[in-house]
Amino acid sequence: MTTENFIPFEYDQVEQKESLERVKSFYSDINKRRSLRVFSDKPVDREVIEYEIKSAGTAPSGAHKQPWTFCAVSNPEIKAKIREAAEKEEYENYHGRMSEDWLEDLKVFGTDWNKPFLEIAPWLIIVFRKTYDLEDGIKSKNYYVQESVGLAAGMLLTAIHRAGLVSLTHTPSPMNFLSKVLNRPENEKPFLLIPVGYPADDAEVPDIQRKPLEDISVFYE
Q1: Rg of the chain on CA atoms, in Å
Q2: What is the DSSP secondary structure assignment for residue 62, as one 8-state letter?
Q3: Is the pTM of this model over 0.85?
Q4: Residue 52 near residue 70 (C-beta atoms within 8 A)
Q5: Distance CA 96, CA 35 (A)
Q6: Which of 14, 46, 66, 79 has the largest CB neighbor count within 10 A?
């Protein structure tokens, strides 16, 4: 293994006690994160969105290919086009595409095909996965694209929460209309649509609970 292109790793030593305090504090905060479908139209500065995207861009990726593009939309006309196209697909989903089991599972969230948050939220961040890179007409392969972009999306959601904003992981299916509305190249495929902003004054969320540690982990000691 060659190390000629390596640089020293910068690391701030943290003792175990502080490590525990940090992660407990982080958990206390991130456990308050909820998906919101009712947004305020209060504006959010572009610089905040930029740093959220930069934070997402620190995610690990296969062979460090960073196979993602984040499209941040605040333009009202583009948001209106996205809403129109998304609601068209969602109407079909709720009126035939979705199974009865799926519709039953969604009842707790009180959702339907109407998606006004796509216009009300001050920003929409659309995450695209790059199936391959394209430079000067030459294709180059990307690796573990789905996994890499999923990691980046998770870090984006965390950064949004850290900024004191709320979000929603919206996945209208199919999502190909996003490529057309945003005029994205052929090598980019829509992965996730995330409205970002402040909660509406009367915002409510479903009374649901996260699984406890013992249901999501197995320790081998």
Answers
A1: 20
A2: B
A3: yes
A4: no
A5: 25
A6: 79
